[in-house]
Amino acid sequence: MFGLFKGNKRLPDDVQRRVEGLSSQAVRALARNDADGRQQAYRHCLEALELLPEPPGQWSQAAQLFAVLGDVYWQSGDFETASNAYIDAISCRDALGDAALHLRLGRAHYELGDSDRAADELCRAYLASAHAGRGLAIFEGEDPKYFEFLKTRMQAPHGGW
């Protein structure tokens, strides 16, 4: 990623295990889709991020933690803060081009009324998914409005959608 994070440093095994455990707990808590779950997910993510040496973006684990934080805000309807968390996630090591992150960021921009940025991120999500051989699968389970919007801003690929 443009040489910002050089080397292949590894977290110490005990820190890695703790970060992975907190991340899993955060995902499980968030899946409850209630205020208590969001609070727990938030706390788990912050605790895990504090374990990462500075800057956190040099560690690939930070991308998932920032994405979960974005999801916490998304579920709360705070699309601006969700967008900022997704931007933090995409800025982490090896995260640029992650279809799911670009989809999340595109949805947030769409909800904020920023149609140009929404189109850009949704297009990135689709192209990354297509490149991975998954195509439209990235939009499965999503509100159809995001894909319908994308179709107004992007030409259909050769062979159609």
In short:
The protein is mainly alpha-helical.
Description:
- This protein folds into two domains: 8-95, Serine Threonine Protein Phosphatase 5, Tetratricopeptide repeat; 97-161.
- 65% of the residues lie in helices and 0% in strands.
- It is built from seven helices and no strands.
- Helix 1 runs antiparallel to helix 2 and helix 5 (99-111) packs antiparallel against helix 6.
- It comes from Lysobacter capsici AZ78.
- InterPro entries: TPR-like_helical_dom_sf (IPR011990).
Could you list some keywords that capture this structure?
161 residues, mainly alpha, Serine Threonine Protein Phosphatase 5, Tetratricopeptide repeat, 2 domains, globular, TPR repeat, TPR-like_helical_dom_sf
Secondary structure: elements and pairs:
Elements: H1 13-31, H2 35-51, H3 61-76, H4 79-90, H5 99-111, H6 115-131, H7 144-153
Helix pairs in contact: 1-2, 1-3, 2-3, 3-4, 4-5, 5-6, 6-7
Organism: Lysobacter capsici AZ78
Pfam family, one: TPR_16
Protein name: TPR repeat
User: What is the N-to-C order of secondary-structure elements (H for helix, E for strand)?
Assistant: HHHHHHH
- Helix/strand-derived category reads mainly alpha
Give the CA-based shape: globular
Number of strands: 0
Oligomer: single chain
